[in-house]
Amino acid sequence: MSLKLLEAKWKPALSSILEELTEAEFRMMLFNLFKIPQGVKDGKAREYIPDLIVQYYGTEGSIFEIDKIMKNIPRNDAAVQEPLRPFVEKLKKQRQGKKGLKS
User: Fold this and answer.
1) CATH T-level assignment (fold) for domain 3-102
2) Which InterPro entries match (predicted)?
């Protein structure tokens, strides 16, 4: 899957994940996004955050970062994990495939 296509599918999934978070969980998630300057995150509505996350972390980086943060919050329930899991699995398979080619 091309990166553009992956990003096009990831942003709506990320939006749905963020909608599931309580206000406290959302603030904790924002706090843990260290690559994004605090001044950029402050005062932004939830609907703008997915673009911001992908802008600072890239598509693949944002998938792994959100996966890590959701485990730390913890939000391992289906409402968060079902939209997230396919992206994490796809990237893990891609990385394993690249490692296999190098060996």
Assistant:
1) Death Domain, Fas (1.10.533)
2) DEATH-like_dom_sf (IPR011029)
DSSP structural state of residue 2? -
Contact criterion met (CB below 8 Å) for 83 and 17: yes
Q: What is the pLDDT of residues 28-82, one digit of tens each?
A: 999 999 999 999 998 888 999 999 999 999 999 999 999 999 999 999 999 999 9
pTM score of the predicted model: 0.89
Q: Encoding tokens for residue 15?
A: 């939006």
* CB distance 63 to 50 below 8 Å: no
SS3 call for 75: coil
10 Å Cβ neighbour count for 83? 18
Contact criterion met (CB below 8 Å) for 74 and 7: no
